[in-house]
Amino acid sequence: MALRLTIPASISNPSPPAETRPKQLMEWLNSLPLTKLFESAKSVCNELGRLNRSRIDADERLKLLEIYEPVLQQLLVEIAEDYNKAPLPLPATSRQAVNLARELLIEEAYAYKLALLEKTSKLLLFGGRKQLVPLIEQVMRILSNSLALSYQAYLPTPAGVWHEMHELYRYASQQKLLEEEANAGNNWSIDSIYKYAVLIALTDPYRLPRSELPDVMRVAAELAALTELHSNPLPEDSQPLFVILPDTDKPPRLAVQAGMDGERRSGDWVISTGALVQRLSEVVRERGAAISPPATKNITYAVPLEILRRLIQCWGSPHKRSHSRQLGQATVHVCASVERICKLLDRDIQANVIQSNQSGLVNEAELLSEWNVINQSAVGIKLRGMPTANMAINVGEVIAVRHHGILALSIGVVRWAQTFEDGSVEFGAQMLAPWAEPVTLVPTIGNHYPRRALLLPEIPTLHQPAAVIASPGSYQSQREFVLTQSSQISTIRAAGLAEKTGWYELFNFHPA
Fold first, then answer.
1. What's the rounded Cα separation, in Å, for the pair 219 and 213?
2. Which of 5, 96, 164, 200 has the most crowded CB, counting CB atoms within 10 A?
3. Distance CA 49, CA 39 (A)
């Protein structure tokens, strides 16, 4: 099987020519002013691009890449600071940083793919297959990094990356390189890099708050070896959860989505995560029972328990859609964050009380932005639009949705988000309640400042009790609060934490 990878076309006489003298290249790279980060990164990207379009020997190319590599890693780490914590949509500088990081990764991948393709025919011909392993590993690491960059910025993954990941893994398997690595005891191998990328994709990373993605990536890296991948057909009575379509440019997916008709096809690969889920479940039980961790503490013992439980569900029993969706042909207005939703609800209350005098009210336009409805169901809604400057979209954030002609604000939470090249954002929200009341919470013990919160109603038909959505740090088990609701004051006690993200805590309560 010939290896099929995308590479740039060579140029006979690039102008200016690429720097191919190791000493001069190192001097030039060391002279770049890292205080001018974007300019230096662009210069490196352009120079590496010229090298990738020049005809040189693979060994000479690899020697030059050894000089490039530490500078590329430093640039990528520093550029990430410009987009890692940026809100959606990405500000102009963050968008520039993401695009620049992508260009660097593309050129870095090109460089190693060129060397790999040249060496493939030579080394196979002369029995030097083992020498291909580090090159395949390097290409797959770079492709995996480009996927991670997309997840961090909530951007679509670059075209062709998944196809090349599948292609490289299949090639390594057919050439018996996976067995070579296993015998050598290589922990971060072609097999583990591929399975790591697969596990990240199965978490539906666009649903992850950006702050949780690093922990998820660490767990996936640590436990990737427990994932099993079968390319041969399984018995007909087997029920795989996940499959890979290796001839496509698509990530792994739920088995019921494998083909247009939902049937598994003979060429699909099947992913088994049973051992992985079992190991995570053991860690969760041990930590719940306060059992001392092993002397060599693993990553899984440091990651928050709520993340481990979510990974058990993602990799063991993922949710399947239970409500049909209807295409949307309308627009809605959206407000994000508990504090801003409370201000908007306060405004509505004040407007009803003093209808004749609107002065002094918060400007509604400053709190709401308009979004197009893509589709909606009984429990969720998918929206797309251009967020205004005063509204950011964050996965795990509370939102309020106002439909035209309806005064009440439906309350939901952003479950996933994705940005696009035109600056627009698409996101999906799970709706929690058809309306809410703005309240103020003050703990009865200690000196605490009042916190704004949302009081969600009881919904008997869904067996959903009344609940409170408050800012992080509000909830403690059995904690008492003075709750001010309009002119009514009562005392409540927290009964149980239903959900916690970096943006809010949702908990049930009962009268104190």
1. 10
2. 200
3. 15
Strands 269-272 and 242-244: antiparallel
The single residue listed with the structure tokens 């400042």 is 449
- CA 149 to CA 420: how far, in whole Å? 14
Nearest to 130 by CA among 195, 189, 53: 189
* The two three-digit tokens of residue 486, written as one number: 């309009």
**pLDDT of residue 119 exceeding 60:** yes
* Burial of residue 145, with CB atoms counted within 10 A of its CB: 0-12 exposed, 13-18 middle, 19 or more buried: middle
Would the pTM of this model clear 0.70, i.e. be above it?
Answer: yes
- What six digits make up the tokens of 453? 């919160």
Helix/strand/coil (H/E/C) assignment for every residue in 288-345? HCCCCCCCCCCHHHCCCHHHHHHHHHHHHCCCCCCCCCEECCCEEEEEECHHHHHHHH
Of 163, 161, 124, 131, the residue nearest 146 (C-alpha): 161
Predicted confidence at residue 259, as pLDDT, reads 44
Amino acid letter, 317: S
- In the β-sheet with 253-254, what is the strand arrangement from edge to edge? 228-230, 269-272, 242-244, 253-254
CA distance 30 to 33: 8
Those residues with Cβ within 8 angstroms of residue 339's Cβ, 6 or more apart along the chain or in another chain: 452, 471
Residue for token digits 């869904």? 462
Distance CA 239, CA 179 (A): 27
Give the tens place of pLDDT for each residue, 244-297.
Answer: 999 999 999 988 654 444 455 668 899 999 999 999 999 999 887 776 666 556
| Three-class secondary structure of residue 147 per DSSP | helix
Token reading at 454:
């949302």
CA angle, corner 474, sides to 470 and 475, nearest 5?
100
Sign of the alpha-carbon torsion through 178, 181, 185, 186: negative
Confirm if 134 and 101 have CB atoms less than 8 A apart.
no
Assess whether pLDDT exceeds 60 at residue 354: no
CB-count burial class (<10 Å; 0-12, 13-18, 19+) for 131:
exposed
The Cα–Cα gap between 309 and 497 comes to 15
